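Researcher: Can you fold this with 5-O-phosphono-beta-D-ribofuranosylamine in place?
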Amino acid sequence: MRTAILISGRGSNMVALIEAAQAADFPAEIALVAANLPEAGGLERARLAGIATAAVDHRPFGKDREAFERKLDEVLRVNQIELIALAGFMRVLTPWFVTRWQGRLINIHPSLLPLYRGTHTHARALEAGATEHGCTVHFVVPELDSGPMIAQAKVPVLPGDDEASLSARVLEQEHLLYPEALKLVASGEVRLETGAAAGG
Ligand code: GRF
């Protein structure tokens, strides 16, 4: 499965996916890393790993999210991409894009979804006095951080934790979880159910 990773930042999850995909029996090939910010640090890391990169700056498109996505979509199609893994991609995607890639678009979110959708998840977990926290890989649907779960990993919240220590503990799990989840989707072991509503 020709897979693109979309990033906005440092790309540590991207590196974990690239490394995992180097195994001969891994069912996804990382064929492209694309960023919405040309200055995203992960682009250079991808280049160093020998992966094709693209930058589609969202800023010239202003408020026209779909125009930005049409450009991004074009880059993905030119590169014959079949599956997309969002890894710290900080743009909300429109229903147009999400529907187009339905079932072939996954994301990692730093919380035990459905808890703490959106940003500042670690601070919010600490504030709520949570005793456990973690990360979730899910299919992307138009509603933010809401699609069906593919895999989840838990970590304990320890006495004395702050945002930095907790996010570091979660990130370590993200780097293990995301390659496993990508494997499940790329191999076809896990699929997004569409059509009839799933009961229960
Ligand atoms: C990760 O915590 C991921 O869960 C969230 O954004 C962060 C990206 O980090 N969606 P990195 O760029 O992969 O290092």
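Model: Folded with 5-O-phosphono-beta-D-ribofuranosylamine in place. Residues 106 and 140 are 5 Å apart (CA to CA).
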